Structures are given as structure tokens and as C-alpha cells.
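anyone seen this seq b4? input:
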Amino acid sequence: MSTYFYATFPTPFGAFSVATDDTGAVIATAFGGISALRRRLTICHLIDDKYKSSERNPCHPINDKTRIRVAQRQVGEFFNGKRTCFELPLAPAGTPFQRRVWKALLAIPFGETRSYGQLAAQLGSSARAVGRALATNPICLIIPCHRVIGADGSLTGFAFGESLKQKLLDLEDTSRARSGPCPPLGAKA
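predicted toks r here
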């Protein structure tokens, strides 16, 4: 079992937490502190009892701002309107289908949205299955699940609330004129 690291830092939209594995790949993010981050750590739901009391328990990552420094800088640049693309290694834990959906999210350009139905059609699936995969996205913001909306334009579903989802979309809309195309970013499978 790997060792995991995290840090929580302020953003204009509140505290934001990032967790990485021992290779430096981002495994989870959350708006909020360590408690919110633990809920996003997919691995926590899969731990054997023998690790629950272990110091290597991934649900108790080590607070290490140094290991999170690059991610923190890029998140700060995003909120300051200086970054539209993240260039971080990603390692979200999920099923093959979930990872396909999350990869499709990475292709939604900054400042644009897609409906659940559009993503479902692209992936040959149902809107409900896509919605469930989005609900389990462990790397919010960087894997931009906030860019997915209802077919009627409504802000349906976001783990951190529709108000925050609207703020993120508004931020991207006001920064969009300054953005260029993003290079492809892929998650480790």
C-alpha cells in the first residue's frame, strides 16, 4: 500500500485540499479540509481492516505542503485567471467506465459546458450512468465535473453545492477571453 500526502490551502472560494500518492500524482481533491478530502479518497472505501489502524492507512494521509506545492501553485493560478489548463499527473481510483467518463471530462474546454446527455452519447452510455461516474469523481476542479450541466442548462449535481458550481462556471466565463487551447491531459489508468 502506498503512502499518501495532502495539504489544505486557501482559495477565493474557500479551503481546498489536494492529496497525492508517493509518485506525486494527484489522487483526490476537495473544497474543504481533510474531512472533505477523506470523503473523496476512493481508496478509503476499499481498505482492508488490517490497514485501518496502520500508519500507512491512506485515509490518514501525511500533511506535507512541499509535495503539494506544484498543485497548489496551479490551483492558485486557476483562481487568479492565469491558468486554464492543469499540467499535473493524475491517478484517480475508479472502474474502467468511471475512468472513461473522467477522461471525457478532461476534454471539455475551459469555459464550456456539456450536458449529461451529450457525454452519455459520446461514451455510448446513459445520462444516469454518466451522472453516477461524475458523482464519484475524486479529483474535482482538475477533472472538471463542474462543467457538466442538465440538458435544460440547470446546475444539477455537484458534490460541493450548486452555488460553488455556479461560481466556478462564472470564473471560467470571465477568464475565457484570456485563455488559449489546452494541451491534452490524461489520467493514469
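Residues 45-52, 185-189 have pLDDT under 50 and may be disordered. The chain has two domains: 5-79, 96-178. kinda curious what u guys think
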